[in-house]
Amino acid sequence: MPASVRREALALQPALRQAATALAADPLLRQAESTAQNSNGLFVSAAALQQAAVLTGDAALAERARALAASGLARQLPDGTFPERHGFDAGYQTVSLEYLARYAAVLPPSSWRDEVFRAANRGLNPNHRLDPPHLGVTALAQSRKRRATGRAGQAGRSADKTAWIGRW
């Protein structure tokens, strides 16, 4: 990395730490953690805090990220679903998996990291697949639709959303 880029990146650390610390203490995040409504928000926040922890060296941010990820993992159903409003949603399952992978990608090798990857892989089956070589996660199931037709009277369609997560 060029010295000028490194200096600029290091200059951003205090602001990054301040923003991440504010996110970690956000009352809305604490409320989301205590309800079973949405899993994806926990993983989005865990990924952001873990990335900030790696960049700033702040162990408190890493611990908060781990607590959020653990809260999300505890919600995983036996079939691998990370529930949204107490059930499966293809789009939000994909978001959960994408940010869980982003969280895990910056963890140091450990039994915790292994556990996170096992949970992510459980979430990929049977309604999802990992698409090598780019490791995109594609949702293959319908998203909360129970009717044969959509709102406009047209035939309902399956969600087919792909989230490119980079490397695992």
Protein structure class: mainly alpha
Largest sheet: 3 strands, antiparallel
How much is the radius of gyration in Å? 18 Å
- In quaternary terms, these chains amount to single chain
Uncertain runs: 130-135, 141-168
Helical residue percent? 55-70%
Spatial arrangement of strands, main beta sheet: 1-2-3
What's the rounded overall pLDDT mean?
Answer: 76
How many domain regions? 1
Written as H for each helix and E for each strand, in order along the chain, the element string is HHHHHHEEE
Number of helices: 6
> Termini, distance in Å?
23 Å
Shape: globular
What is the number of beta strands?
3
The percentage of residues in β strands lies in 5-15%
Description:
The chain has a three-stranded antiparallel β-sheet with strand order 1-2-3, covered by helices on one side. α1 packs across α3 (40-56) and α5 runs antiparallel to α6. The protein has one domain (3-127). It is mainly α and 168 residues long. β1 and β2 form a beta hairpin. It has helices spanning 3-25, 27-34, 40-56, 59-74, 90-105, 111-124, and strands at 128-131, 136-139, 162-164. Mean pLDDT is 76; it is low at 130-135 and 141-168.
